[in-house]
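Lab meeting minutes (informal)
Scribe: AK
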Amino acid sequence: MRPTCGSRRRGRVQCPEGFTLLEVLVALALLSIALVVILQLFSANMRGIGASDSYAKAVMTAESKMREVLDDEAIHEKTWSETTDNGYRIDGSIAGTEEKRTENLPVELLDITLTVHWTDGTKERAVSLKTMKLIPKKV
């Protein structure tokens, strides 16, 4: 009768019953490399989520201020800068534009620009909104 596993060596049958130390070390090394790559992907994703959250808050702050400016009945040309309670700095400017095209019309076209600045870690970030508004000319 022949043995069912391995080869015969000096009258003994060798049946491997487990992994060698080298095989275990190689498997652990491959597993650790895969885990490091996966964790780096997750951390990059979390940084991206944090950055998009701060941009979304800044845009909401800028849109809110833009609505205030556009709803103002006494809007006129000016520049200003202010700091909000949550740490954003808003720089705004309202300037007349296209004067040659509107000189014979009873309206004036204003160019409105708002820029929101904030600090994200050590980096200075900013987002800008720009629009125009027609107002009656002052006589």
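Next up, CB showed the second protein from the same session:
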Amino acid sequence: MEYTHKIKSPVGMLTVSSDGKNICGLWIEGQKYFAKTLRKDVLEQNMPIFENVQKWLDIYFSGKEPDFMPPLMPKGSPFQKSVWNNLCKIPYGKTTTYGELAKQLEFENRDKRTSARAIGGAVGHNPISILIPCHRVIGKNGNLTGYAGGIDAKMTLLKLEGIVY
């Protein structure tokens, strides 16, 4: 069974999903790929895991770095999960590029070639927005390239972290 809960935020209404123990999804209403990994048989219900996410988001949206992370269980391919794992390593208040992420994965995979385009596809399909910080990935020239939640949301999230574009 999968459960959902809605949370209001400065970037719009958020839908959070959980298997009861882990966060499986967090989407900004109207974003590209909204609830793509969400099961069809879901139950909207408040649970302790959602209260934990609400606390994390309250801290984050107050402009501070939360000192904890709810347990995450994103649904995706092994490649996507490796990209999302690397997104979690981008420090609060910092950005990286698709190319830098590709180089990091090449290093981790013993020089197995990884393209920035493949990284972009995995980043774009991140099912746990904000908590897995795909908004911290920018283009190689510092451009604010695509964000499934919209460029305005990306700018808001970066600004909260002290990064101004």
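CB comment: The chain has a mean pLDDT of 92.
No objections, moving on.
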